[in-house]
Amino acid sequence: MAVTLDTDLARVLGAKTAKAMAESLDLRTVRDLLRHYPRRYARRGEIARLDDLQVGDRVTVLAQVRKVTSRRMRNRPGTLTEVTVGDGAGQMQLVFFNRRFGKLEEGAWGLFAGTVGEYRRTKQFAHPDFHLISGDDDEDWARALIPIYPASKDVSSWVIQKSVKLLLDAAGGFGFVDDPLPEDLRARHGLLSLPAALLDIHRPTGQDDVERAQDRLKWDEAITLQLVLAARRRAAALEPGTARPRRPGGLLDAVDAALPFTLTDGQRDVGEELAAELSRDQPMHRLLQGEVGSGKTVVALRAMAQVVDAGGQAALLAPTEVLAAQHARSISAMLGPLARAGELDGDPSGTKVVLLTGSLKAAARRAARAAVADGSAGIVIGTHALLQQGVDFADLGLVVVDEQHRFGVEQRDALRAKGNRPPHVLVMTATPIPRTVAMTVYGDLETSVLRQLPSGRGGVASSVVPVSDKPAWLDRAWERLREEVAAGRQAYVVCPRIGDDDTDTDDADAPDDADGAPAEEDAGGGSDRRPPLAVLEVAEALHQGPLAGLRLAVLHGRMTPEAKEATMQAFAAREVDVLVATTVVEVGVDVPNATVMVVMDADRFGVSQLHQLRGRVARGKHRGLCLLVTEARDTTATGQRLAAVAGTSDGFELARVDLETRREGDVLGAAQSGRRSTVKLLSLLEDEELIAAARAEATALLATDRGLADHPGLAAEVAALATDERATYLEKA
Ligand code: ADP
Ligand code: MG
Description:
The protein is α/β, with parallel strands linked by helices. It folds into five domains: 1-42 and 158-172, no CATH class; 45-143, CATH 2.40.50.140; 178-238 and 688-732, no CATH class; 251-450, P-loop containing nucleotide triphosphate hydrolases (Rossmann fold); 460-500 and 531-649, Rossmann fold (3-Layer(aba) Sandwich), CATH 3.40.50. Magnesium ion binds next to helix 10. Adenosine-5'-diphosphate (ADP) is lined by residues 261, 263-264, 267, 290, 292-298, 430, 454, 588, 590, 619. Keywords: ATP-binding, DNA damage, DNA repair, DNA-binding, Helicase, Hydrolase, Nucleotide-binding.
């Protein structure tokens, strides 16, 4: 049979199997099946690791039947069959109700797949699916390594294994697979050909085969990603932009004169870097990383001022209304009369600062849009509302995106497209980004880093409060909070949920965060967990109990924008002692007098989220205190994760911890947003060298005008990824 990568699986496997594969695993073509790699390989001796299995895990194990006993059940009709399987080292129980198992004879080997349960403290599978290895099976089962595939209830690992075998037989080998990688590249990096790698990953004869195959297949993933990014960088470099050189005696000089502090060395250096890039007619694409509190806002403001001085407009995109309003307030305050050009008390040499958010009333919105359109607003600050149709700039020169991790490439592009010519772009993030992530997720941007915090900061001390192990510590936490308030300072209490409603785990205002809590790795199945603590309930309990007498207020995404703003103002004005809030306070909220943060159910938050949160209490001259309250025991993975957060304030170290606890796919969102993921084997933690090498190769491949014309295989892979991602920028370029 003539088989190609695009051949429908139904033609190879028959309609029934193909349908099950399509429906439960989204595998439709020969390509899909071949790129569905084993998750791991089973070998004898492995069952010893059964002890590591968590209740609720769905697993496949290779084992031998040891003992089969059947008996009538006492309390209900029918029989119970218990089967003990083992492999020399360990053993486990399989339990079946009312089924006959003539086939399950002692001594037989098989694969057993099921969900791990527990009965009387012994791990067991109830009603596992199984496949016995019999004389009818081919030599497959004699192999040292049996591939275990990501499987589903309807398509088991062994059906996939058999399907690959069928395909191999039908096509007479994998010779039909064209290798997209150029031969010289393969030779340079010592890589297997694609047909050889596919054969080895699906049917290895030993561990060496697996490793060499993975090495090669990771290259496919890395180079495709890097080609997309290199194409994007190259297209951007060719775009004509508008130079916005410095002009003395303008807004920038006024800002510098008005600053209540001296810039840190880092702020000055990055400032020079930005000033130089803004002066070129090639648009800047820069990522500014800086620890929470490192002072990114003023860096951005100075860049915006330079652009305004050069006759352009600057837009600052913030992830939440609270943050947009705060930026507008602090920037207006810093500029004083210079922010009110055109008003009675304004300085005519200044500009207008306009806030544009979704909650503006129609008339205010119309006025704001008009000022944006006629160019009188030099500085425009807003949320997603800035991206909408009908927001037209007279001459957009610079786009600043604050707290990037909440925005996608598409949103950045939507704003960019509002310039007459491509504007300069500055992306700011407080989440430190490991080098591999910078090379992938942000691979189209140049990077600057602010490492230093302004001096005179007290910093923040963090501790875990393990309420299961040490319940008394929570009382002590509230006492500490009261002490701080008594000393004239303020506090936050953060909860994962709003309350009064079960559908409210996300704030309407704080978009779904990609870096939320990691998968519940040790929560014991999840279903028996109590719901996360809620702002409304916790506030009430604190008011009645440990914090009675203090001035409490709540802040969450279900409040109206006016109410949120009023609450923030009251907190900033010290009319409120304790703000009980959701993660709306996570990004950028700046109240230096707040020194304590108590995070309830801290285990429900992700690592970088916690780091962001505690940044709120490290802003003033007093030392901040962050208490991570959790029921997780310190021996669990969750407990360890929290200990890591408490143990270091080095954002780069935490970024690594974060990466370890998240699946690659969560991080590589862009490459994963398509129907099928492109990144299956590549690890951002382990494959730094490979990614760097692939980046260099990709850049070299695209350095000539012929682009990928001589490499149709690679061009096809890139096109597939681009379509899959709906990565519109390739067409735009
Ligand atoms: P982030 O980088 O987290 O966005 P901000 O820009 O909000 O940090 O700055 C945090 C605080 O530090 C603000 O109150 C700001 O006014 C202050 N700040 C910024 N730069 C300096 C500096 N060089 N010296 C002293 N304080 C500064
Ligand atoms: Mg900020």
